[in-house]
Amino acid sequence: MKCSEEVTIVNQLGLHARAATKLAQLCQQFQAKIELVQEDKTADASSVLALLMLASSKGKTLLVCADGEDATQALRAVADLIKNGFDEN
Question: What distance in Å separates the CA atoms of residue 66 and residue 87, rounded to the nearest whole number?
Fold first, then answer.
């Protein structure tokens, strides 16, 4: 199953190292392939380095795409983490 949702980075520091690590660790818990798309860049969400290469700052919009058996649950978990500012606030 394939699904996607647009989310906006809300935390002050954006998708920095600690946030990217938290997101990658979350994505690694799912069977689904999860990708983040920002403008013309796409990143494997289970890779910290790939996430950092997006250089996503506060206010940037990301398209979260999930494809696989548990895609719906994966998409919900990832979108919630981003919407909650990576639990930094």
Answer: 21
Distance in angstroms (rounded) separating the CA atoms of residues 2 and 9:
22
Cα(68)–Cα(87) distance, rounded to whole angstroms? 26
Mean pLDDT of the chain: 96
| Mean pLDDT of the region 2-28 | 96
Which residues participate in catalysis according to the annotation?
A: 16
Q: What is the pLDDT of residue 1?
A: 82
Q: Decide if pLDDT at 89 tops 80.
A: no
The yes/no answer on whether domain 2-87 falls in CATH 3.30.1340.10 is: yes
